[in-house]
Amino acid sequence: MVYDITLIGGGIVGLATALQLKRQRYDLNILLLEKENHVAAHQTGHNSGVIHSGLYYKPGSLKATNCIRGYDMLLDFVRKEGIPFDLCGKIVVATKNEQIPLLNNLYDRGQQNGLTKIRKISLGEMKEIEPYVSGVAAMEVPYTGIIDYKTVTEKYAEKFQALGGQIHLSEKVIGITKGSTISIVKTEKASYETKLVINCAGLYSDKVAQFSQDQPVNVRITPFRGEYYQLKPEREHLVRNLIYPVPDPNFPFLGVHFTRMIGGGVEAGPNAVLAFRREGYKKLDIDFKELYETFSWPGFQKVAAKYWQTGLGEMYRSFSKAAFTKALQELIPDIQENDLIPGGAGVRAQACDRTGGLLDDFSILEDAKVINVLNAPSPAATSSLSIGLTVSEMALKRF
């Protein structure tokens, strides 16, 4: 048969897009291909489960607009489906006086993004919310919450299939041939004829995009591993909910922080170190071909030259529990090295352009036959239904 739309990637963005397509056009034949034997296998299944408010993102950007719209859509969905979540709120803490202007800028940005309930709080109020935190200034963000995005994605898949959508697992895409009216998506097991391809392949989105593009794709996915510790159960009282530092505005990561998890426990982290393979969840996971591709990319070379000191610090923390603990002590001085036990890790698909720009915003590249979602980092999970709606609207113009 000829499919109307074939999606590649069974993470939260791919399945949200598939669901939104089926909701709008029940009559279309839609197929989703996933290379693993279950959905949410990579970025979606390894993130910290935070419902983001839209605080950090440039007003008017795709991140800001999709996060704010997606936040409401996500909460509506999980309430209707009975998926557990908790809008526990978080505080953002300046630990040094020189961070106060950055905290004020963050507050202003949140206001511009419509977050009218955020507020600057006194040090006394900060201590009431999180008694063990140390800082010189703080802001409360009551919108922030926690959830299990793997559960959300599985529900997207269930709803998509109930509407007649098809999901083929364990089918890795190895090629795309575009035709004048019909394209062919080839996997390791079969070939599928389709009118439109939507690429939501996450850590391999640039590779999949290159299958269908006549010219080289001018971004490369650079994988950054985020490693977590967990607090020992007897020390979880040190963190009530979520505690974040003021982020470095020049670096697309939020810094080590504390996150209470929906299933219990408290995570501490992550750091942000270069992963030596795209799905490298352990320090010694290495794919030499992928590592060479990263090092040889002109954009990465420029990033490395600019951020080498930051990168070395992150790498040092990766191998030194004492250094990791010291970073956490800036927020909670009572944290000790023996309070931490190894946690999980995730890999972020960070798009890097040829000039050395780390793409901050979502990036979508399209032509008549293919839509490529090339950059969808955090807050993509919170934003998933909004991103899915955006991409589905782009797709349905062709039908």
Outline the structure in words.
The protein is of the alpha+beta class and 399 residues long. The chain has helices at 12-24, 62-81, 100-112, 123-129, 149-162, 205-212, 288-296, 298-319, 321-329, 384-396, and strands at 2-8, 30-33, 50-51, 85-86, 90-94, 119-121, 137-141, 145-147, 166-168, 173-177, 183-187, 191-199, 219-231, 242-245, 257-260, 266-269, 273-274, 340-353, 363-366, 370-375. Strands 5, 6, 7, 13, 14, 15, 16, 17 and 18 form a nine-stranded mixed beta sheet that branches. Strands 1, 2, 9, 10, 11, 12, 19 and 20 form an eight-stranded mixed beta sheet that branches. A three-stranded antiparallel beta sheet has the order 3-8-4, with no helix packed on it. It is globular, with a radius of gyration of 21 Å. The two termini are 18 Å apart.
Provide key terms for this protein.
alpha+beta, FAD/NAD(P)-binding domain, 10 helices, globular, 399 residues, 9-stranded mixed β-sheet
CATH H-level superfamily of the domain at 1-87 and 145-218 and 360-399: FAD/NAD(P)-binding domain
Q: Tell me, what is the CATH class of the domain at 1-87 and 145-218 and 360-399? A: Alpha Beta
| Mean pLDDT rating | 93
Fraction of helical residues: 25-40%
What general form does the structure show?
globular
Continuous helix count? 10
Parts with pLDDT < 50 across at least 5 consecutive residues: none
CATH architecture of the domain at 1-87 and 145-218 and 360-399: 3-Layer(bba) Sandwich
The number of E-state strands comes to 20
CATH fold description of the domain at 1-87 and 145-218 and 360-399: FAD/NAD(P)-binding domain
Alpha-carbon Rg, integer: 21 Å
